[in-house]
Amino acid sequence: MIDAERFLDDLRTLRTFGATGTGVVRPSFSDVDMAARRWLHGRYADAGLDASIDGIGNVFGRSPNPGPALLIGSHSDTQPTGGWLDGAYGVIVGLEVARAIRENPDTADLAVDAVAWVDEESTYVSCLGSRSFCGLVDPVELEGAASPDGHSLADALAGADLSGEPDRWSDREYAGFLEAHIEQGPALEASGDLLGVVTAIVGARTLILRFAGQQNHAGTTPMRLRRDAGRAAIHFGHAIDQRFGELTGDRTVWTIGDIRFEPGASSIIPGRAELTLQFRDPDGDLLERFEQEVRRIATDIADATAVDITIEPDGRAIEPAAMDQRLHDALAAAAEAEAPGHWTSMPSAAVHDAMFLADRMPAGMLFVPSIGGISHDFAEDTTDDDLVRGVRTMAAAAVELAQRSMGSGLT
Amino acid sequence: MIDAERFLDDLRTLRTFGATGTGVVRPSFSDVDMAARRWLHGRYADAGLDASIDGIGNVFGRSPNPGPALLIGSHSDTQPTGGWLDGAYGVIVGLEVARAIRENPDTADLAVDAVAWVDEESTYVSCLGSRSFCGLVDPVELEGAASPDGHSLADALAGADLSGEPDRWSDREYAGFLEAHIEQGPALEASGDLLGVVTAIVGARTLILRFAGQQNHAGTTPMRLRRDAGRAAIHFGHAIDQRFGELTGDRTVWTIGDIRFEPGASSIIPGRAELTLQFRDPDGDLLERFEQEVRRIATDIADATAVDITIEPDGRAIEPAAMDQRLHDALAAAAEAEAPGHWTSMPSAAVHDAMFLADRMPAGMLFVPSIGGISHDFAEDTTDDDLVRGVRTMAAAAVELAQRSMGSGLT
Q1: pLDDT tens digits along B6-28
Q2: Are B134 and B177 in contact (CB under 8 A)?
Q3: Which residues of chain A fall short of a pLDDT of 70?
Q4: What is the pLDDT of residue A407?
Q5: Which of the listed residues A298, A313, A328 is the one where a domain comes to its end?
Q6: How do strand A195-201 and strand A321-322 relate by DSSP bridges?
Q7: A351: Cα separation from own chain's centroid
Q8: Are both B104 and B214 inside the same structural domain?
Q9: Which residue of A187, A373, A377, B164 has the fewest C-beta atoms within 10 A of its own C-beta?
Q10: A173 CB contacts (<8 Å, ≥6 apart)?
């Protein structure tokens, strides 16, 4: 039922909004982002869907059929220097699946809606569109919100002629949310799988560790009299690596992404050091256990080095979000039909809009491979075969789920 | 024979040239530095010494007696934000000892010269005065030499009306060089000793380690597929700490003074990292062994992490300089007389002019305590009692050595 050429044409057309070399620069509320949203609005309308742009910038194409409706989509904004598929792929999958279901007489009575969320990539506020829809934005977050170049969210909304009032998940009865996305990692390519059915979106905690010792002369201060903040930071980083390696689940990742010493000179013992430690896992209990280990290790190293260590969260902890088992199973059945023996269940290691939708309705996600695992980069790409396999799988799962929801309701 | 009040008065007068709060700002060739040099020239002349300022800015007060002469002094320039005693103390010790010996009928026939070297603190060229005197400056070093604020050495010399031509060690017969200095470290204070007789000035090697891995997404890249340059740098730093701790001599020190990750973001695996490792020891063989260990550890970590590691020296290696045993013993005998049981033999962990003089003549150094081990800081200080004990000790050793050199010659 999927029209592969039409699907790829729409995906390539969306790419033209903000195309820059092989990549795309389409930050939320920019002129090209709003132009792309108006184009999507037109494509939804052409497909016979009720098209609208809500007050926060989300574009909806709603089936005229009554709910409970299956909502399918992703975000159409990009990173500051983004790839052409991150978000865009899932948006056009939503368009094509809702369109194909609508035009096929056998499925035309199903309620399948499409959506393009705004600002998943956090130009102003991370996952602004999906979180606003779900009622998961604290108004305080919006007050001082601004882009990295200092443009306020209020100005951006006014410039895009948006009221700031989102549509809400409670306005319509929903059967669930499905999101297709490129994997943005190397796991599918490494295992030779063609599709990934997401089990959970991992949670993440980011901590800032600050080490305060005593700055001193690197020649005249004997080792035993030092309170070297840099040395303490290095010992901490090493201990974390050892200990997390022992505790880790299969999918746990941890990263010390930044570290700084002050004053940072070859002949001066660092008086201060700072590092960021981020760890992600689909299991919230394991995240909590890791954080307890961080605190224990920091205490041990502070005691051993006479360096004071403070720990502070960098932003909100992101709790893991489990995908709905029935949606997972429907996607898995469709994946087995499209790629027998060449699909896998896997967690998502990156944040997605589906994470927040999962708080309000059953949610499921489907991954297609990323070439070389590359994402958030102009070089991001996926083969046409893989892109089409994904939309076919999503369509099959959507029909199955929408048919079931007509009877019993999935919610 | 020492006039303690006169000595302390002269030391306090030198402090007024560039006094800033409790510290001193008297960088080489600045107006206050040159004014201080002209004042020293006057004080040498008042003491009956042949006073001169050579073409590079060194100030000499030479005994009219024939050599072999004992040369005593230090540097009168300061760090950008320096303490009042670093260098200045040894300069005024030289003035007072040469003056006291000259005015005492029992010692007036001894040849004891005083000196104030220029630019030990490297505003333009490290130890410029003493190294020029010793013929240990490569002319290439001088060509592009400039201060951190971009003022060229050539302009500085011209502005100070200096020819650039130094006096030379070979112009006169020398018996040896003695330098008094504040310790600039906490060892004397920690051991309760009042004087330190220097055995050797430590050598130092500074290496820059560069780690090149693969930048990637900190969520989607599994641990086993990472080539994390930051993680390799942390493991390297930890391994160095473990291994150097096993190999170390009593006086070895090592410092990772700076470290940087690129791009340095909490959600990105560092693709590149860089750190500086400096290690110092009085034993040149041990320095060489440490460097071999650095290379071995880097190879092991590169193999284990698939991160490329390159090693490059940061500037010239500084070879350790042994002090002359006879000068050490004369200072030790005088220290035992001034502070029975409360002095120690020790290496100097910091670079001094005596390091270069040691290439050309017997050299010796005497340390007095630094309060709290603090130096290169406005808070640098030493008690009057300790300052006076140092000049008395130096005078006694100088008389002993100068008397001996009149007969046999020490060189």
Answers
A1: 999 999 999 999 999 999 999 99
A2: no
A3: 407-411
A4: 64
A5: A313
A6: antiparallel
A7: 3
A8: no
A9: B164
A10: A66, A67, A68, A69, A409, A411
Considering the domain architecture, whether residues A391 and A364 belong to the same structural domain is answered as yes
Cβ–Cβ contact B314 with A under 8 A: yes
Our CA dihedral for A92, A95, A96, A100, rounded to 10 degrees, sits at: 180
Q: What is the pLDDT of residue B406?
A: 75
> Buried b vs exposed e over A175-198: b needs ≥16 C-beta within 10 Å?
bbbbbbbbbbbbbbeeeebbbbbb
Contact B255 A264 (CB under 8 A): no
Q: Examine the domain organization and report whether A341 and A222 are in the same domain.
A: no
**What does the pLDDT read at residue A411?**
43
Residue B231: which domain range?
A: 203-313
Q: How far is it, in rounded angstroms, from Cα B348 to Cα B182? A: 10
Given a cut of 50, whether residue B374 has pLDDT beyond it is yes
**Both B124 and B213 in a single domain?**
no
pLDDT at B267: 86
CATH number at residue B103: 3.40.630.10
Spell out the SS3 assignment of chain B.
Answer: CCCHHHHHHHHHHHHHCCEECCEECCCCCCHHHHHHHHHHHHHHHHCCCEEEECCCCCEEEECCCCCCEEEEEEECCCCCCECCCCCHHHHHHHHHHHHHHHHCCCCCCCCEEEEEECCCCCCCCCCHHHHHHCCCCCHHHHHCCECCCCCEHHHHHHHCCCCCCCCCHHHCCEEEEEEEEECCCCHHHHHCCCEEEEEEECEEEEEEEEEECCCEECCCCCHHHCCCHHHHHHHHHHHHHHHHHHHCCCCCEEEEEEEEEECCCCCEECCEEEEEEEEEECCHHHHHHHHHHHHHHHHHHHHHHCCEEEEEECCCCECCEECCHHHHHHHHHHHHHHCCCCEEEEEECCCCCHHHHCCCCCEEEEEECCHHHCCCCCCCCCCHHHHHHHHHHHHHHHHHHHHHHHHCCCC
Q: Are residues A211 and A356 both part of a single domain?
A: no
Domain boundary among B296, B313, B330: B313
Q: Are residues A298 and A374 in the same domain?
A: no
| Angstrom distance (rounded) from CA B221 to CA B235 | 20
Q: Which residues 181-210 of B have a C-beta within 8 angstroms of A?
A: 183-187, 190, 202, 204, 206
Residues 6+ apart with CB under 8 A from A172: A62, A67, A69, A113
Model pLDDT, residue B408: 54
pLDDT given for residue B248 in this prediction: 80
Q: Do B259 and A222 touch (CB under 8 A)?
A: no
Domains in chain A: how many in total? 2
Torsions phi, psi for A343 (to 5 deg): -140, 165
Mean pLDDT of B105-115: 97
User: How many A×B Cβ pairs under 8 Å?
Assistant: 185
User: What integer is the mean pLDDT of B38-49?
Assistant: 98
Dist. CA B42–CA B201, nearest whole Å = 32
pLDDT of residue A317: 86
**Which of the two residues, B85 and A265, has the higher pLDDT score?**
B85
Read off the pLDDT of residues B285-308 as tens digits, 9 standing for 90 and up. Answer: 999 999 999 999 999 999 999 999
Letter for the amino acid at B146?
A: A
Residue A268 sits in a domain whose CATH number is 3.30.70.360
Q: Does B258 touch chain A (CB under 8 A)?
A: yes
Same domain for A339 and A306, yes or no, is no
* Binary contact (A219, B349; C-beta < 8 A): yes
**Same structural domain, A230 and A325:** no
Q: Which residue has the tokens 């590169």?
A: B302
Q: Closest residue of A to B183, CA-based?
A: A220
